[in-house]
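Task: encode each sequence below as structure tokens.

Item 1
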Amino acid sequence: METPFIEPGGCNHAQLAFLTVIYGYVLYQASDLISGGSELLMLVPSVAGIVGSIVLPILGAVPDGMMVLFSGVGPNAQETVAVGVGALAGSTVMLLTFPWFVCIIFGRVKLKSGKADYSDKGPAGLLGSGITFGPSIRKNAMIMLATTGLYLSIQFPATMEEMMGADIKQQEQGEHIPALFGLVCCIVAFCGYLVYCFMDANEDKQLAAVIEGIEHKQVTIAAALQFIQKTSGSQKELLDKDRDRLKKVCRPFFKRYDFDKDRTLCKAELKPLLHDLGYWPNEENMDKLLSGPPSGVTGTSLATSMDKDGDGKISFDEFVDYLYSFMRDPKRMEKAPDYSNPAYVKYSEDDDEEEEGEEFPDDLAHLSPSQQMMRVCFRSFWMMSLGTLLVLVFSDPMVDCLSEWGTRLGISPFYVSFVLAPFASNASELLSAYTYAIKKSEKNMTTSLSTLIGAACMNNTFVLGIFLALIYIQGLAWQFTAETVSMALIQWIIGLLAISSNTQTVPTGVLILLCYPGCLMIVWFLENKLGLD
């Protein structure tokens, strides 16, 4: 079959290096086009929820999926499929290490009481600094760890075949049905993950309506607290997700009282809070309420009871803690006015630090809203289409180049693909991690790390599913025990780090970064010292 691409086997080393760089750069640009086109659709309200929860994860996995696909369809598929395994393992491990390390290094702030103090975004040293992310990371990490179990569907029968001394042909026959079973499991897990992403992205619209009402002064602080109380998962203590919802409700009130926008509240700025909490002070007793014990607070002033660290200012976390204690006191809640407008149900995106809406491209700013929507949809379509086309066209010759490098260097193509392929197909994630990190906010850090964990979940379901389909249809044998063990082990290390603490420091970041070369070392040790395939 004729092809416009140069056969790598006929090139000298310099020519092969040049081809590899060119193909890698094209795949990088293709990945960037797909990502950019998908993000443009976030500007279209009618599809924004679907784009962020479904379209972006799928298209983000397309480059790796295509490299796996093309690695297993040639005449020497059993040998070249190692390139696909390298792309799968390299992409998964690289996304969970390099960008994560970038987030910690460039997003770190000074720690305060063991948590990242995002109110102080000044320079932070390597020690005594770190990042804090939201509780959703822990949940996503658990899902990632669960999806690593899908590898057992093919690894277990493959190990059994090897223990019985089966040759490649016997392995292919023995793994035929398990590959089909694993493929079905991957499809179910993939669809289930997309459903979860969609529900997670669009859940709690009622909370969004309450926040919108707060911002338009249609919902009082007591009514908002009552809403959190009634819709929380536990009536005794707030769960992590409910405390996160409480913060979202408190944020617009805090902004309202913070007149000088210094992200802290002083005594004077607490005066409107007294009104909203039902104390109804006048000019004569205002100072007394602030300096002495208000009704319902025994032995301490309102300002003192909120200012836990005694610095004379009320931080947002101290504000939330006080309102949480207020919400838990039925007597004080009864005195607070609880007016709310039930008809106010518009949706509004909130931000943990600042309101950051999606901005239209500058060249479309002069157009009417309807024209902007039309242009955005058209631009998004051609960017994603062109990016996908480039991936389909250049993945196959890239696989040939990586396979040829393995042959010339006398090493498995897995190692070459592990190192080079991810930086071609996933380089945009590195830039995205840096972009989010420098904003130095908990929300942006959570968004960035969620994207990285989500990419690993997509590799464990969507890309692995493509691999299992190749094994079933092409009759290939799974001979990647060392690669599977090392890839799963790295995911478990990083996943457990994310689950154990929502604050990570620079030393933790260095440990995570070392997992990337560590994965290759584990593969080498398992293959050369323990004799695993």
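Item 2
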Amino acid sequence: ELLLVLQLDTLEAVRGLRNANVQLCRNLVVVPAAAHCPAAQISMKSLPLLKFKDETAYLAPEGLDEIKTLQGPLCPIIFIGDGRSGKSYLASRLLDIDSVFVSSDSADPVTEGVDMIVVPTRTLLDPTDTSMPDEGQEDEQILVLDCEGGNNAMAAIRTLVNVFGIVLGTVVVFVANGMATEQALQNLNASLAARSLIRLEGNAQLPTQDLVFVVNKNTLRYDTSALEKILDQKYDDPGRQELRETVRTAFPRRDFFAVPLMGMPDFEPSVGALRGHLVEARRPLLVGGVSVSGTQLAGLLNLLVSEIRKTNEVSFPSMKRCVIFDGFLAPLVNKLADDVRAALPQLDDYDPELASRDPRQMVVSSFNDSSVHLAHEAMLRDEARALLQQRLDGLWREVEMANEAFGNEVFHVAQEEREALASSKKLPVRQRGLLKKIVVTSNTLIVESRAVVHKKRGGEPECSDWTSTKRTVQRLEESAFECLNKLPIIKGHLYKHSPSALRSMLRLFNGHQQTRICILKEGHFVWWESEAALTGGSANGCINFFVHRAQVEADIDDPATFTIKPSAQARGGWDMADNCFTGGANRAFHFDASSCEVSRDDWVDAIQKHIEFADLAHDQLGTTRLLD
């Protein structure tokens, strides 16, 4: 294998190479072909993270900026415990690098606040190690935090340091100096007291943590069950019992290590065993089930410092909101909204099918799929979904408004007319003739017009007010008579079958035929026996289609014959038959046009038009007016 080592002088160079997708160990870059980076070959220094000025806490930009650049899952391992117990040294040995964290044998405290360093997990593992990060988690980082001691008389005891330890560490390494004493348990319990500053709501619980209890500089004989034996001891003092129960509750998983004095035969094996255990026990930091990224962790740290400054307590819901909502859901909402904005339809004309291009439902479904693992955080998820819906509604409304503007453009304009009544008068249909006694209403109508505007969007058109065109028209209220002058008038000689049985027999045996002069005019079918009778006498018979509701049929067997008979509307036959013809109310009139000047079909067609005219006139005038 080829190992390429690049010594970088600036943090910017390190970040530049990290962005170029190469593996980093701060001042060392290993090309991807190298499977393992022996950490002992690397010169690294920790960065300040939490510091104090005039007893006021602040986040050091060096460490905070480094955290913000991290992308992969973060596995925090935090060292707390007795002052001057060798925490910083053991934290450095976790990386197999001397003096990553400053350590000394003086009585003065070395670490103030919290220092940190971040290394890729793979640099601490053998390539054959089964605990290598899973595929897709190659960017997993181990964040090592070294906190100032809690019992050194020359060190300030700072609440926020303990809060960092309780909130951030998935693996908490408590280092006791020399031996596992009651005082060491009390110091651990003092750190756990920071849990009381985390304000929980409802059934909320802090993330679980693993405890690794380490006796450093040990001169006694301990086995791996030493911590459990200490916790199982029974005392009459309720305070001591409560202390032990607090440790059990806070750390469901507990491990014990003893590290002898430096130089002793078991020193290096003991340090190696501790190091191996810590690397294997690493776990990503989760808040509300969400893996915390570098940017989210930076936001969480700012929240912790801000809330401790203001109220001396931290709201766990606020922590979850910082990570889950601010760090995951809000960026997801922003990304989906930005994607929708880039994909919105660009309209250049009205689109009647715009609704079919609405992406909102699909985007909300995508949000649900992307946040399904947060189903247990329903309130935050619902809030983010509502925010997304609001953003989507705003974006889509802009598209709809543009479409509405196009839709309000004029598609075409039409003119529409109507007739309004101006005056009415009564007058006879004819001055003389068959219809001279029928009176109808003649209306004078003013023609009005308006503009009808059709928009591109369709729907009901917009109409202007009606205005007069100054034109007038005459209309008969009984509209049937409007077509009176268009009715055909027919005159011709037809053979009429007599209703008399004797006459029928004479025609059959002697060839006798009744020739009649017939006229079809103004809704009447009238016949005479001769021309002389036509000019000088009364008609021999008449079918008045206004009163006699009739129907005409062409004989299907004889091309010259047709029949006029009562229609279905004439219930009971002809009305007033005796006044107009012989043969009774149910008589059917049979006519033969074989020798007529007009064809049978012309007769039938014309009679049908007069029947239709008379039927309509009957409906409009009524029987009483017709009889009058």
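Check on item 2: The longest helix spans residues 378-407. The longest strand covers residues 410-428.
End of task.
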